[in-house]
Amino acid sequence: AAAGPAPGEQRAAGEEHEEDDLGYRLFPERHKQPQSFLARSLFTFHNRCQVMLRMTLDTNPHARLLLEAMKQSGCTVFNDRHFSCEDCDSCVGGGFDSATSQIVLCQNNIRHQSQMNRVVTHELIHAFDHCRAHVDWFKNVKHLACSEIRAANLSGDCTLMNEIARFKFGLKQHQQTCVRDRAIRSILAVRKVSKETAEKAVNEVFDACFNDLEPFGRIPHSKSDAKRAFKDFQNRDRYNANL
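User: That's the sequence. What structure does it adopt?
Assistant: Structure tokens below.
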């Protein structure tokens, strides 16, 4: 999953490549006219994507917390408006299109509910950052790096079980190592910059952004962690009201 495309934006000054499609090559349907409702309804991948998305939004504590936090920040998320199931390049599961404030879910690549949960959470973190801060996604690679660090850290991308499934068995600071690696990979997927540029951006903002745990207040290593974070978030206003 990656924070990605927006049409008509210019690349950052000083980047090594003359042309940068800002990640749109990974999301080819972004430039196409949408299919009719009937055509999409007959497409199995699209149906499966919509069903799994609804399940995530209704039941996943990570997603529910982020939706509530965005609503409180003045950015209410609507299923039909802010999510789009589309075919994508095989290397990505989703993306956040800041030009349309829309989350792209790669219906041809998301095959399991647990994967949908992680992708939606990852992209909602980008959407939350877009809502609460003046993120310059396209001209400031450090802004992109910070959101990628937060998304990898808070979405469940780097749980120990997921790392073991990737055949990565290091236990010492595995969370930090995984977050750093995935943030760099995400930047390289959607921006035509060198690996050195991506690594430099991630290293410069890593400590501050790794420790920015909003709106969770903790790193949710499991669903039970996320449920506790959601409950704590719901109780914030109650405590303030009683002061």
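Residues 113-132 form the longest helix (20 residues).
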